[in-house]
Every structure is written in structure tokens, then in C-alpha cells.
Write a structure and sequence with these properties.
193 residues, alpha/beta, Rossmann fold, seven-stranded mixed β-sheet, 7 strands, globular
Length: 193
């Protein structure tokens, strides 16, 4: 179990869609041999997403506890800390999206200030949970800033807020891995214990 000052308290895994992020994160958690809690942030808003969620659930070991928390992850975990040695959060990408859409439901004229405030509160609470819950954390997130600038305001706000959230967690993390075509590239090396 990682203590709050251990350099590997937080591992951040970044990459594009279908880059192998979740598979790599699940492998890290499985190889730990520890008790794992899996935090799922996806919401089954349509049949296709329901099928994706079901496929992800079937891949995970039965011994893992899964908590489906699409919003207020940090606060919910602070209020009721899970008993686990490893916590996998999959994924920050959807958590930021969920927070953004809650704060800016008018997709044609999104309220950028409200969105920023909502996402900031979500990330600050997540950081507080990471700091206070005595477990190793593995957080999965997409890198969405490497493509074209989105042609609509909500897309630009989302890209900027997720990029900010990724940077914030990357600074806190002891290990940052970028996945490309299923191959891990270490961006932030392990610190010596």
C-alpha cells in the first residue's frame, strides 16, 4: 500500500483513443497482487455505450470492487473511503466531460466560467482524495490536445479543461506513462525510494 508521501502514490496513464491505456492500467493493478477498487466514470447513455461498459466489466477480475461514479468522485471517496490497496480511476476524460456538461448544458452557448469552476472543483476534490486515502492510485486519461482545434466552443472548452486537468495530475504523479499503439512510453520516471 502506498503512503501519502510515496513517489508512486499516483500513476497517470495518458494516450489517445484505443491506445491501450485501460489495458495497461488494469495490468499494473493486477500485477500488484493487492486489493483493487475500480472507479468507472462512464455513463450508459445509449446502447453502444452500454455495450462498451459491459465489455469492460467482463474483462476485469471478479475480485475487484467496481464503483460507478460519473461525478463528484473525490468527494464521494472522501465521504466513504474505499478499503483498497490500489484504486484505478478510468477515466479522467469522462469525468471532466461529465462535469463540463453538468455546468454547461447548453452545448451551443456553453458557460465557460461555470464549466471551469465545476471542473476545478472536481479535480481539487480528486486531488484531496488521492492525498488522504492510503492507496496507490492509477488514473487513466486521454490526451486530446494533439489534434486539430475543435471547430465549436464546447469542444475547445473541453480540450482546454482536460489538458489543464492532465497537467495538474501529471505534476502530482510520481509516474506518468504515455500509451501509443499499445506501447508504454515513460514521460515521468519513477523516483528513487
Amino acid at each position: 500500500m502506498a503512503n501519502e508521501n510515496h513517489p508512486l502514490k499516483l500513476t497517470l496513464i495518458l494516450g489517445g483513443a484505443r491506445s491501450g491505456k485501460s489495458t495497461f492500467a488494469e495490468g499494473l493493478a493486477s500485477r500488484s497482487g493487492e486489493e483493487v477498487v475500480y472507479i468507472a466514470t462512464a455513463q450508459a447513455l445509449d446502447d453502444e455505450m452500454s455495450q462498451r461498459i459491459a465489455a469492460h466489466q467482463q474483462k476485469r477480475p471478479q475480485s475487484w470492487q467496481t464503483l460507478e461514479i460519473p461525478l463528484n468522485v473525490g468527494q464521494r471517496l472522501l465521504d466513504n473511503p474505499p478499503q483498497a490497496d490500489v484504486i484505478v480511476l478510468d477515466c479522467l476524460t469522462l469525468l471532466v466531460s461529465n462535469a463540463l456538461l453538468t455546468a454547461a448544458p447548453d452545448v451551443d452557448q456553453p458557460d465557460e466560467r461555470a464549466a471551469q469552476a465545476q471542473v476545478t472543483a472536481e479535480i481539487e476534490a480528486l486531488e484531496a482524495a488521492i492525498q488522504s486515502i492510503p492507496a496507490a492510485w492509477i488514473v487513466v486519461s486521454n490526451e486530446v490536445g494533439m489534434g486539430l482545434v475543435p471547430p465549436y466552443p464546447l469542444g475547445r472548452i473541453y480540450r482546454d479543461l482536460l489538458g489543464w486537468a492532465n497537467q495538474r495530475l501529471a505534476r502530482r504523479a510520481g509516474r506518468v506513462i504515455f500509451m501509443l499503439a499499445g506501447l508504454p512510453m515513460r514521460l515521468k520516471p519513477d523516483l528513487e525510494a
